[in-house]
Design brief:
- By secondary structure, this protein is α/β, with parallel strands linked by helices.
- It has 9 helices and 13 strands.
- α2 runs parallel beside α3.
- The longest helix is centred in the C-terminal third of the chain and has 14 residues.
């Protein structure tokens, strides 16, 4: 329940868990979706970042945030022992009273605030068909269009605000395009099996160049970080409106 200019952390967490479908959505082993770190129980200012790290936590604290909403959380593997930078991170979170909420695949896939839906929107598309399943849940989107692949590369670079690597393995005119943000470069066969001629993602392994040529597939790598700024911005902006809070985006690009 909101009191003045502050909101209970538990209220925001319960709302996010519900609208993102956190309890029902599977993720990679080790990933933890939802509240990862508590604060004193109140939120006055929100911050959003793609990654939870020493730098983004520090910048969130400097912005006055009590809650940092991220796509990539703190837990992907065992964090032990609590020494060095890990100890510094925990001390900073505690001293600065910053809570951390993470939404990984649930935010990629979300039909309203998801990275993939919003990347399509940034490219001028209104997707209606899903693409690429993960443990029974749809992650990406596919669209039907007609655009020269060089033009699509330029539009994509403008949408993500950076360089785009293109593997010209398919036709010069892109007609069936799949969009999955982040590190989905290893899923080229799924794209080809779905009848797509073009696949947009963030990054992929070296061997995907030859595979794209073999499959007759155009592939665009627009950056893991760059393709995943959309979701946390949209979600946090929505939370700020709903709970009448201010918010800040912590831009800390990796270039990857």
């Amino acid at each position: 329940m909101a009191i003045g200019t502050k909101v209970r952390l538990s209220e925001i967490v319960a709302y996010c868990d519900r609208v993102l479908g956190i309890p029902e959505f599977p993720d990679y082993e080790g990933a933890w979706n939802g509240l990862q770190v508590e604060n004193d129980g109140w939120v006055r200012h929100l911050a959003a970042a793609v990654d939870a790290s020493v730098v983004t936590v520090r910048k969130a604290a400097e912005s006055g945030a009590d809650l940092l909403v991220v796509h990539h959380g703190l837990f992907w593997s065992v964090r032990q022992p609590w020494t060095g930078m890990t100890r510094q991170l925990w001390r900073m979170l505690d001293r600065q009273n910053v809570a951390v909420y993470s939404a990984h695949l649930p935010l990629d896939a979300h039909p309203r605030w998801g990275n993939n839906r919003l990347l399509c929107t940034a490219l001028g598309w209104r997707p209606r068909r899903r693409f690429l399943q993960w443990k029974g849940h749809w992650i990406g989107w596919q669209v039907e269009t007609e655009v020269l692949r060089e033009q699509l590369r330029d539009r994509l670079a403008q949408a993500v605000g950076g360089a785009v690597r293109m593997i010209p393995g398919g036709p010069e005119v892109c007609r069936r395009v799949g969009v999955v943000s982040g590190g989905a470069g290893g899923e080229l066969r799924q794209a080809a099996e779905a009848g797509l001629d073009t696949f947009i993602t963030g990054e992929g392994p070296h061997w995907t160049y030859a595979l794209a040529e073999e499959l007759g597939l155009n592939v665009f790598y627009a950056g893991h970080y760059a393709t995943e700024t959309f979701g946390v911005k949209a979600l946090t902006a929505h939370l700020a409106r709903r709970f009448r809070l201010s918010w800040t985006f912590i831009d800390h690009p990796t270039g990857l």
